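The aim of this short unit is practical: by the end, you should be able to scan a pair of folded records and say something sensible about each. We start with the first protein, listed as its amino acid sequence and then its structure tokens.
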Amino acid sequence: MFRRIMTATAALAACAATAFAGDDDVSRRWAVIAGMNLSCPTTASVERSPRDAGNIAAFASPQCNVLLEYYLPQQHFSVVGGYNAETVQWFDSKVDATMQNIVLGARYYPLSKRFALQPYASLMTYTNVAQRHEQHSMSGWNGGDGYGRDCTLRLPRVSVAPTVGVDCYIFSSLALEFQYGFPLAIDGKAHVATTCNGSPDVYRMRSDMHRHNIQIGLKATFPFRFTSADGNNLFSLIEMALGIYDPADEKKQETKKERRRMKLERVLDSY
């Protein structure tokens, strides 16, 4: 199964490369990107109770994002803006918060537009327009032990994120986008204090709200176009999905070196 998935992925990349081969005039003016993102906050300091077995920080449930991208007249540069929701959590989601961000940034694409794979580097800003201050108190049981927890959250108003990513063009105007960023929170704080079984000992966790962020999305570029090569690629993908066609079954084209070796072997065999 894994082999078939890898084979299909390789075939998809080959199809995209074929569609773009020799196409030096790839016209892109703007794009729409829709997808989801996941965030995992970092912790500045942790005093972990041995009775408290929850994950201190982990990737939260995915949230949506919608972005618009405008390609500047200068080749290789674009500006990006839009909206995303971002959830951060600690202690197996017992402490969490969601930010509503207005996104603005710029991207740099080092390669020519005719390549199917378009890596990029960018600098993004996230402005949280939701409430910033939250306070919660809770209690519960974990492995037969009781605990109490008080948390104070000050969500950052602004975060600045260096990011890297890649657009993988499936067709001429449609791409899968993968991005990793590390938003650096400005004036963000999280303080969580935990006590176990009424013990006077207090275990504290502190975070500056810096976080890892992964984004996966679908990108459509405009003016939108669908070429004959795209049609052939779509037909091949449908055949692969139905199990009619397997790229591994295709006969590999012989190289010049292989043809010369076979010719030499035939000459030797004739003696």
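Turning to the second protein, read its sequence before its tokens, just as you did above.
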Amino acid sequence: MRAPARAGSAGLVAAAACLGLITSCGGDGGTARPEPSVPPATGHAYTAAYEAGWREGKRIFEDGGKGAAVREVVWGGCVRRSLTARPGDVVDKDRGAWVLGCKQGAGSGADRHPPTGPVTRRAPDPDLLGRFRSWAAAHGERQSARHARRVVLVHLGTRDYDVELACTCTAKSAKADVRGLADAFVTWWDGDDGDGTAWNLIVTDPTGRRLFTRALG
């Protein structure tokens, strides 16, 4: 009855299938010298984020080849990189578009498939918050969970997503409170399984400012 979270391990067959898909979704061009065929940014936030992700993906592929492609596309490398990718003011406007560009750039093919609209989709999930609080109360984590105020699923594409947990904490709050909340949530979430893959937990202050991140996958 829990919300979808981590999918099971992909396995060699799934990895091979994914590689077959990304082979047709890569392209040529380096980090600093994109090919002339790469269209310029049109002013859309998702276009700028995609282009930044594409350049990073191509750099990764040029450095690591197909092994890097598996790591970035199948095992969530691009999603995790998106949390610290630069320029932050570009990436954060549509992190899903950056992830898409990174995945396609990390592939070994020659075709690009830029998005035609925003990729990131945010979906509040109050029911998920209620179930976490109920679990916390039953497992001695009520004190940690008291800071939780809102859960949002941040969809970064068709299957990848992060979980954003807003709390009453601020940058001046005790780090132990933020970490304790994250630890409790990750412990609860670890038992979840379902469609899609949740890669990161992002704990934010009430304004959405990122305070702490933890891996979920």
